[in-house]
Fold each of these.
Amino acid sequence: MPDAPAALGTPVVRREGLDKVTGRARYAVEHRLPGLAHAWPVPARVACGRVERVDASAALAVPGVLAVLTHENAPRLAEPDDPTLAVLQDDRVPHRGWVVALVVAETPEAAREGAGAVDVAYLPLDHDVLLTPDRPDAYVPEKANGGHPGLREHGDPDGAYASSPVRVDTAYRVPPLHNHPMEPHASTARWTDGRLEAYCSSQGTTTVRQTLAAMFEVPEESVTVRAEHVGGGFGSKGTPRPDVVLAAMAALHTGRPVALALPRRDLPALVGHRATTLHRVRLGAGEDGRIRSLVHEVTTYSSRVKEFVEQAAVPGRTMYTAPHSRTAHRVARLDVPTPSWMRAPGETPGMYALESAMDELAEALGMDPVELRVVNDCDVEPDTGKPFSSRHLVECLREGARRFGWEGRDPRPGRRRAGQVLTGTGVASATYPVLVSPSTATARALPDGTFLVRVNATDIGTGARTVLGQVAADALGAPGDRVRIEIGDSDLPAAPLAGGSSGTASWGWAVHEACVRLARRLAVYQGSLPHEGLEEHADTTGLADAGSDHARHAFGAHFAEVGVDTVTGEVRVNRLLGVYAAGRILNPRTARSQFVGGMVMGLGMALTEGSTLDPAFGDFAERDLAAYHVPVNADVPSVEAHWIEEDDPHLNPTGGKGIGEIGVVGTAAAVGSAFHHATGVRMRELPLTPDRVLEALSEQGAAHHRA
Amino acid sequence: MKTFDYVRARTVEEATAAFAAAPGARYLGGGTNLVDLMKLGVERPTALVDVSRLPLDTVDELPDGSLRVGATVRNSDLAAHPLVREGWPALSRALLSGASGQLRNAATTGGNLLQRTRCPYFQDLSKPCNKREPGSGCGAREGVHRDHAVLGHSPHCVATHPSDMAVALAALDARVELTGPAGDRVVAADVFHRLPGDRPELDTEIRPGELITAVVLPAATRGLPSAYRKVRDRASYAFALASAAVVLRVEGGVVARVGIALGGVAHRPWRARRAEEALTGAAPSRAAFEHALDLELSAAEPLRDNGYKVPLARSLTVDVLTRLAARSAG
């Protein structure tokens, strides 16, 4: 085997980049199967109740309409583990937007027209979508998302708080947030002789296959699910969503292949979202800044369909030394769409609250906010008592401060004015756990000197295909262009989803193992390779899921500079800078893109994103991209991502900690703290839109007048 | 699927004739709003009479110094036109603050005036809306209405008009030229759009079958200091929470002419006549501007969740006036 330069750590370009920018890449509903029909959903118009009757006659009379599926005629499915997938199985309407019928037609236009003609009569009941911090029906869940205990308590947090010389008792609100990937949730399904084949915009088709096989009661071998290219997911495609179940039902019902792309306006109700979180944070510290008591209590909602609890109090279990602490969740079950994963669930809203409270504590102490975090750094995870496998939070803060020009910052708020614009800077920490799951993979050497690596990984735009090529090339000692990577097909060796920032670690581990084994075998192989080549298989079960004696997390630091227009209330970010310690960075090009993308998402959370649950109707008022404001280019001036290389032996063979989510985590807190530094006003509710900003500034003005 | 006829008109006469021949027809300009509304089922025309290629795509200077802008001139072209930038800069700024580059390339002058509210209840067939379906009720009045009107609304409708361009035209004393079955007529831009009253389904004073042929920018406001400022939730591609178009001439230490129109606060660009009256002849000062805006906004009736628009419109407009006055004096 010729020596090849190490591929890992180099900025290799995306393998599928050309296909994507030239339109050759096919997405889930771009497969023109012969006889393809199209489906369009009918969302419920009441927020709670039952379907009394569905009259499909007008819809069936629309030219081109083939069928109308309702709970009365749709295929009966086995009960899924995820009850949000039990669509068209009964007459219950658990929230507005729940699918109550599906129209299948020759064209998407006819399906849409048919959907508008379906006449559904409801037996509505009163609904309740209002989350308040003191709802008596809110309860402490046993587990929050990710398997985290709903409540953790150490020592005497209330007593220690009461006796702390410096105290902060504060509250924050993060509104509902929506993933809104560019490619909506979309699937094409075809049944052939009892075999189901689906193209699905998913973050992991191994699970989609398992779920469909169970629901349609066919062997897993009879189901193939492909996701060659995926136009983003941000968590919302981490598990199957109703689109693929509906498409498969419609295909079964009509005997035709069926494509279904959920309409953009239906996504907020059907694919999960980040639920509102209401935070109360109490920090008690000594005069030296050391935290004695940390109390983070989160109230959130879930739907009537299932319990999903955003684990927003969890970061307090990891971030800072606190001998006394309580981190708790309470959840109220409302008549709302079911929340789910959205990029860094838990950490994103949780760190917004915790890190904003840290800024308030720094102010109360008269201490620099970077130094406050340094003082409270720890080498043992507070909640578990385990040592960190590596933790370079302080290095990230120091390096970020140096690059950002933090030194010499005047801490006094409201001092930097140019005309009507006040400017300020802020900092926040970031953290995200190292997750890794078992995966399988194969590596094959072919007689022509090339290699084929197969693993059911999914590239949701991150560069996974490219990075796995690098992992394989290094393990094989071969140039990258000799390695072919096959991913995105459930017939490939089973692999976990692209989620939890764990994809590269999980798949890469199996790919590395398979390639190392193959290289060893080739090293002693005599003669020419057989026609079909030589193949090695790896399965990291037992390795990847083995417990660790170490607490494993990535860390980072965010710095932000904002300008606040005191006349209009407009807040604009001038600069964002992040420094991350996330293990080994495998591909600087794609890694930077992920970090920057996360920071832009955090910028959106801070300034522009958020939706409103309409109390009268029970749905989200902002349901398209004109009303739900993701940042546009003009909102994103200078964003820099840097990193500190870590050599952590307690991770996985690739040495990476996962980078997909940490970029979003602390951004909103850094922006919020910069806003305070600019204006002297604490905003405790996101996003920082002109209406709220003006109100806060005018309250400050009124307070000055009273004083 | 819902079918409709499509007619591409070559002349104005062809367009009005085709429209008259097809009850339920709509004129199609750039299609940037109408086509969206057709997809949503809000608009269900029987026929589209495409007027985007009519020979109304020129900007012509008239002998009196006014500027006649053809109805099919694209927003991008109008914003970039040297005579507009020089003579009526507020219009150029207003156009450039609207939508996105791609949309401005497609949107026409006439179509911009006729775009419809972005009220989410109007766009959602599953909810009541008196504008979309008269008599069905208003979902926004007690619903989600942070973006809605604070001036001139009615129990039937609290929607705002979304156009930036129309706000500038109202302040600049522009005129809208129409042709129709009863002949040609001219309507002042600041009353071209209506208040909702008990007929919220009617956005404008346009009569059935009438076609916008041009917008005229008058010589009287040419070259005067003018400005447009828009406040929005993100830096681009968002509708106004509030906006202000102002034209101001100061002579001999007093306000000789002032035009103020507010956007994002009413069912039409809100010409601030009371403020203008108070300012005309007065010495331009921040106090005078504040007083004038207070007079104007005393008519405001904010809803439960949009009270911020009153102080926002006030501070924004005072700021624009103050800057223009400084420029006028300098």
Note: The first helix of chain A runs from residue 17 to 21.
Amino acid sequence: MNDTTVFELSGVSYSYHNRIVALRDVDLTIRAGEALVILGPNGSGKSTLLKILDGLYRPTSGRLVAFGHDITAAADDPELGYWLHQRVGLVFQEPDVQLFSPTVFDDVAFGPLQLGWPSERIRQAVATTLDELGITHLADRAPFELSGGEKKRVALATVLVMDPEVILLDEPTANLDPRSRAQLIELLTELHRRGRTLVIATHELDLAAALASRIVVFGEREHRPIAEGPPDRILTDQKLLIAANLVHEHLHWHGPIVHSHLHWHDAEHQHEHS
Amino acid sequence: MPRRNFVEKTLLDLAGAIEHSVYAEELARRSGLLQRIDPRVKVVVLGFAILVAASLRSWPTQVALLTLLVALLVASRIPPGAIARLLFGLPLFTLVVAAPALILVPGPELLRLPFGLSVTTTGAWSVLTLLLRVTASLAAASALVLTTRWADLLAALRAFRVPLVFVLVLAMAYRYVFVLLELLQDLLLARRSRLLRRDENTEQRRWLSSALGVLFQRSLRTSEQVYLAMAARGYRGEPRTLRNPSLAETDWLALSLGSAAFAALWLVDLARL
């Protein structure tokens, strides 16, 4: 991580149809090379924030600066949007919307084609990306033939092939089986190690524990950050996690004994018994 | 197993359509003769075969054409069951439609029937010609569709200067019809799992219209999200595709041999008349 600022949001708000508030007066700075996890429950505005960072939604109010340029109007300015999309990639939560071409190869080639790369470079880049993600064998498959985990990998490939400086990921491990989930976390860790800036929206604490270099917690009623800090501080602050609706009291199994107590899970499954 | 109502039956048929498409893609990926040939060549040669099938008039050349096309299907590892359905399915339907011609077309009597009716030789020949034409055309079209992946077929359309926007819309429509069909299936199963008695037709119709409403809503939302996903990867309203690679030597050979074989049949047929 270095001190270069990638995104600077000042007083950013967004409402759907001018009625439903998704973000309220958000101030946030994202630095190059960090793995920032936006942690929040459903409906706290995480996905909307990612679409604003990618210049797809125009903030209702506030200002957004990316790489030193004011990109608040990128959603309404195709040239500005095009400039931004060469440097920032977004992996959508629902891979089906991202895989719209007849084959995996066509989907991965779509971005580079829009960037006007020469054919040979595109073929080479697609082959390399598919190989890095271990999905070369899927190149000729139609998206409807893929499993959930494969779709996620292909969706990530469609972004990685464009070699963006920043990768935005919306609930990247949602609906994945344990193996696919572990593979994806490993892959994202490697991307971060290579210096990519990652911004990950999730409500899963173990994903945050595995990937984050910094966590920003969004409140479900506030629709803006209510806390931020390193993972070891945020993820051990139970009061904060309860207030943000990220952990809750529920039934829990210990062999034949069933009891309820306040707890949350991390990778090691540690918790206190009352 | 409760008796299926019309809604369920229709939707299960739709699910069958998904399975069929997956199976067709699997056939198109097999390492058969036609699968190895460039789709552009197949479109030209098999398109020409359909033209020839529609023009042949003598039965020996028609039988020869059909035999050639069936041989191509076999060499392309299309299962015998699928070929049999092709040869006896739709042609049988054609026979039902064309049957009156056996009696109505005037000509020398071939077979006497009750009620003063008779099958004429001319009528029998015209029905046979029609049957052979339909079967051969169907075999040629199937040889193209069953051995070519949908994506390659679209790429071939591009090569023949079909407008890119048209091809793109076709590709996306085919892509998302599966997403929507899966949703429709889930809606059906969710309803069925909560149904404790046989429902009336009125209820079924009401449910179907509400399901279609959900589907429409979902398709609108999906289209908006798909557009955002395209824009996020640099799309600015102008579709672009990779250029098709040039034809290999084997493709040129297939183009020449295929066209020559079908043209030869046509010439023989003309010479026989």
Note: Residues 201-232 of chain B form the longest helix (32 residues).
